[in-house]
Amino acid sequence: MRILLAEDEEDLNRIITKKLRSDGYSVDSCLDGREAMDILSYTEYDGIILDVMMPKADGYEVLRFLRESGKATPVLFLTARDAIADRVKGLDSGANDYLVKPFSFEELSARLRAMMRAPFGVASSVLWVADLSLDCASHVVKRGGVEINLSAKEYALLEYMMHNQGIVLSREKIEDHIWNFDYEGGTNVVDVYISYLRKKVDGGHEKKLIHTVRGKGYVLREAEGK
Predict the structure, then answer these.
(1) Predicted confidence band of residue 125 (pLDDT cuts 50, 70, 90)
(2) Res. 225: pLDDT tops 60
């Protein structure tokens, strides 16, 4: 899942980015609201973390720009203001959640997971497709009760596909959501990682869950279909 972080405190920005990447997210970060709006004008994200007080444009302006653009991307506000009026303003402005500084990274991670699974109608942190399970909190993946060891990028790809189970995902869409701006790789990177996942998820199982839809992309579902 791909995240945009807009936070003007450079040290905190760097720490949050590192933490989120260690959790398996693809993260792009910026230091002011104007840059955040520029990025959001041409890039789609699964979730956005906005500091309220930023130079050039504050979090409210960025959020207003996002919503007026017709995008319902989940937004988590970060702020040092803990007054109830500030929280109400943030939520009424269209934010999905609100976290007051200082905060624990464990709470940030938990709130982010909850916020981002809501659009998919998922109540639990555990995703299922047939006998395949993925725990978004612990990052434990199992097939038929047997744990599967995945690399960070393999996990990110599988999580994205499980959130979108039954939906055919193009190579471009997968690449846009799993790799950030810093990525410099080959044009067949998605095919390579799909191959890795197939070996680990479907290898040795009669029922295959990862399917190729010729000319369109890949889909995770119980039945192969067309």
Answers:
(1) confident
(2) no
* pLDDT tens figures, 81-100: 777 777 777 777 888 998 99
For residue 167, give its domain range.
126-220
Assess if residue 226 is contained within a domain. Answer: no
Consecutive H or E run containing 223: none
d(CA 105, CA 102): 10
Pairing of strands 132-135, 126-129: antiparallel
Please state the φ and ψ torsions of residue 187, each to the nearest 5 degrees.
-70, -20
Same-domain status, 145 and 116: no
How many domains in the chain?
A: 2
CB-side neighbour CA atoms (13 Å) of 16:
29
* pLDDT given at position 122: 59
What CATH number is given to the structural domain containing 134? Answer: 1.10.10.10
190 contacts 171 by C-beta, under 8 angstroms: yes
| Pick from 196, 163, 195: nearest CA to 177 | 163
pTM over 0.85: no
